[in-house]
Request: fold
Amino acid sequence: MNGYSARTAGFLAEDSSAGMLSAVRGHPPAFIRKGSHMSEQDNIAVVQQAYTNFKSGNINALIDQMNDDVVWQLPEIKNVPLAGKRTGRDGVADFFATLARDQDVLEFEPRKFVAQNDTVVSLGYYEWHVKETGRDFESDFVHIFTIRDGKIAGFREHFDSAVVAAAYQKAMSA
Reply:
């Protein structure tokens, strides 16, 4: 034979150089071992798939991308039901149910992705309509994702909280 064991032969089909090196050593490639470090490109792909699921309305698939103990956090904003911290898949599901109840997306555009180790930062722009007040807002955003074992373990969002607060503020009666 060519010096590779039968155990490693199945892994040689991988097109990743990291996968090839692992295969030569007789171990599964790093990106398929539980608890292993995924590449930064793999982590970006997880985030991009999450955005695809969100944009297509496939919230169940998006929730399936979360770790059981995911932490989902937005800035605290008075009188904005979406604001604050949620934990676990149920907390994230509550976030998206509240989002669907309270806002309509007008535009949502992740524009740039930057990754280092288990962190992916997405820079983008969005516009939303607040159903209760009839007001729209727009803002650039920064989304910071933590990826663990191919799933989203953490999410933190930064945006112009003043425009969000203003859009949620009810008109003063005369």
